[in-house]
Amino acid sequence: MEQKKIYTFILLMGVVSLLGDIIYEGTRGITGSYLHSLGSSLVIVSITSGLGEFLGYSLRLFSGFFIDRLKAYWLFTFLGYGLLISIPLLFFVNRLDLAIFFLLLERIGKGLRSPARDSIVSFVSQKIGRGVGFGITEALDQVGAILGPLIFLVSYSIYHNYKAGFAVMFIPYFLLMLTLFIARSFIPNPDKTEKEYDVNHPKKVFYIYVLFSFFSIISVPSYQVISYFFKASGVLNDTQVMFFYIIAMFVDLVFALIIGKLYDIYKFKVLTVLPIFSFLLIVFSFKEYFYFSVMSVILYGSVLAIHESVMRSSIADITHISKRGFSYGVFNFVFGFGYFLGNVIIGFLTKFGYLYLLFFAGLSQLIAITFLIYLFVLLKKD
């Protein structure tokens, strides 16, 4: 397959990610206030949010398993992205229970499509470098993460209601499905594009890698946690918090392309920066200094870029093509669980003080480095 066709396909899948992010990232920031407008309590909002994230990550185990068994990469991709229709359909909703149902449906779609989409990108990008392939899709993904909230904000500002924002999302939805059909017409059988002799590593390598990913993410705070500290401590005001999030997404966009290219050259060696960046993120995120907050969002965007591009690329380099979907399902599930558990622990430790956060971050990243060194040893033997 010629490289021009591969790059065109990767760009198409990147556009799919971009449009998908416009839809669901555009509305995620207002979910709480939207449900409040329908009469929801804080408890219901918390349960809905937590259940949605649980469904989004846990379903990847099952969808990944069936994707491999059925080789239904495109079926699960179309089904998962198709469920994004639940967001624009909120335009017709005036009841709390229906709104919750549609919001959960969107997260279910995320759980169905993610292993399939990642598998497709990993198959096709083998010949141009998986770091580049995932770097491109992650960069475009972040363009959508920036545009989505801006589009919804403009719609809301003009019409002063949520329904206008939801209605606008019909446009990126139809463009997304059209782009997906075009991408499928380019490469209908993506698993046939990868050479099967590419991977001969033992199963232990994969599980050590998953443990490394778990301990590297467990001390990484979400932007919601970071921004809460910024606001509560008075370091930043509301406008600055939103602007800094856009900065973080821009850093993610740029760094994903850079680290993706470096991965194709140096492979797993580039992962050594992840525990360092993750520890420094805690160092800079929970001190009441403006310039620390600047460093914090830069590090947050960088860590996010590594997890979303290089970490996904590496899965393809250590797993056989026949188990790719399930491997992505396991990886994403462990990632999601670690991210959730870590933020709960970080939230709890903030009550005790800065040094406790540093100890937790230092310990978790030290364990991550230990698993990474063991991974290097296994790969060298292999």
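Second entry:
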Amino acid sequence: MSIDGVIYANYRHGLERDSAFTPPARPSNFELERAYLNVRSKSEGGISTRVTVDVDGRRATGGQQTIRLKYAFVDWTPEGSPVTWRFGMQNTPIIGYLEDIWGYRMQGTVPIDRARYLTSSDIGLGAEGSWMANGLTAHAGVFNGEGYSNAPGDNRKDAALRVSMRLLPTNDTGPTGGLRVTGFASVGRATGGAVRDRYLALLTYKTKTLTLGAEYWITTDSTAADAETQGRITSLFATHRLEGSRVGLLARVDRWDPNADVAPAAFDAAASRQTRMVAGVSYQLAPNARVMLDADIVSAQGSAIPNAFQAANRSVYVHTEIKF
């Protein structure tokens, strides 16, 4: 059995005055974003387990942190098989994969997770495999669909599949390395019967020092009674670690349109297009510790953008990542 974990903490300085303060002032706080504690084990017969406790540093009602179970699953890899079967509360096929490519979870969640279209963990049955020395990888599963932080819903389920193929090799021979094309689909129905479909096309180039990526999402949602809403997310990102140095550079631009059929003149959180720009520099303090200075700026379509939105989405951070 082994125990490990990670802590994400930051210092945030807002660039806009928040009118909710008296007198209005720029937000300036030390924050604990997240802490994870993992317990892992392996036994004979290709059986392994993982349990992960998630501490959400964002204060819930009453001022307390939320502690929840994120992962609790068992893996079975038959002898000689390239496929691992997984049952329980487990990683869903795409979020962790995108985080591995981006490499800076410490800055924040990836766009599809940040927009709350998908969750990184859910209860279900999955299978993950790799062939041709990671030239082809796949991950599929059937899940409750409500995510690890919500109670299971009714009888409806979500089915998800990710397939990634390496088109050209690089010096990164891992499951995300090389020039790769990746497709992902998740189709299902939320509790009550609402549509909940997500589709991704992803092109990435990854070496041991350079990562380039472009992703395009199509989302479809509805309620049981209303018409469907089409959403779009596009993202371009790049990271570079200087050769022989502890310094890394990162930049990304994410555009989220929650309702592609509507362009409101005045700001509407449910329909206005938003563009997030992130740029930063990181430094590897030790093998298990990184620090990063970055700017995170969100602009929105439409007039009369409320102060609360501006104050919450225009900040400079010092992010830290501590592994143990």
